[in-house]
Amino acid sequence: MSAVETAPSVDPTTPAPVDATLASDVNATQSTETKGSEDDQPVTIFHDRMNYNVKHPLHNEWTLWFDNPGKKANVQSWSQNLKEIVTFKTIEDFWAVFNNIVKVSRLDISSNYHLFKKGVRPEWEDPANEHGGKFSVQLPKNRTGEAINDLWLYTLLACIGEQLPNEDEVTGAVVSVRKVFFRISLWTKTSDNREVLDGIGKKLKETLNIPNMPLEFTPHSDAATKGPSETTGRFTI
Ligand code: MGP
């Protein structure tokens, strides 16, 4: 059974924001995927260049997570609030997921969507994140409105389409819904290679088309030890 089918019933108090059609879409896709494939690998454009019903593989597999703690998150409860929704590895399956989940603009306050490379949990403690940090930008809700849906989509496409330089550095992206702002964050594996980080940050700013807004980089070690209000970014782009 896929994570999509199980996610909504994991915890009835925190329903995963998945449209009912998603499960059937992904199931339909899975049965096409396995057709003619002995080892359960998807049939992709690399196997059959002449047909249009094959899928386009992504360089990495990605997992979508959701959490809505309903109250202020804390270090102890963080992990148990995370709900794994679905993993995909083709562009077609990405769209099947994206087109069927609740839009960011309609999520409850304190919710987060996290898209991370498969195998990486969206938390500081994961080995892929423990030495890393995040770029983040806060977008005031009153000025951003529904545009947040497109900004999150552009962030996702930049990640899965490897549009960011040194894409191996990127572990995932997060969108957070807070009382007066949305926040988009991009998580990196390391926090000390300024040249590499500068390149990633500049490209993210360009992708989001936010030349006049500060994009702040914060090592997770700062966030983990100081708490959100005291955290100061190491640098700003
Ligand atoms: P947050 O949601 O990233 O910050 O983390 P925000 O939005 O500034 O704060 P909010 O209270 O308005 O939501 C909020 C809190 O969640 C942190 O202070 C930690 O207590 C906890 N937390 C966040 N993250 C990303 C982690 C994590 O990776 N691991 C653990 N253990 N706790 C975390």
Describe the structure.
- With 237 residues, the chain is of the alpha+beta class.
- It has eight helices and eight strands, in the order ααβαβαββααββαβαβ.
- The chain has helices spanning 3-10, 20-34, 78-81, 91-98, 141-144, 147-160, 194-208, 220-226; strands at 57-67, 83-90, 112-117, 133-140, 170-177, 181-188, 216-219, 235-236.
- Strands 2-1-3-5-6-4-7-8 form an eight-stranded antiparallel beta sheet.
- The protein is globular.
- The model is unreliable at 1-16 and 18-37 (pLDDT under 50).
- Bound molecules: 7-methyl-guanosine-5'-triphosphate (MGP).
- The site of 7-methyl-guanosine-5'-triphosphate has 13 residues, from loops.
Classify the secondary structure makeup into a structural class: alpha+beta
> Unreliable segments (pLDDT under 50, ≥5 consecutive)?
1-16, 18-37
How far the N terminus sits from the C terminus, by CA atoms, comes to: 43 Å
Q: How would you name the oligomeric state of the polypeptide chains in this document?
A: single chain
Which cofactors or ions or other ligands sit in this model?
7-methyl-guanosine-5'-triphosphate
What is the radius of gyration? 18 Å
Strand percentage: 15-25%
Q: Write out the strand line-up for the largest beta sheet, numbering strands in chain order.
A: 2-1-3-5-6-4-7-8
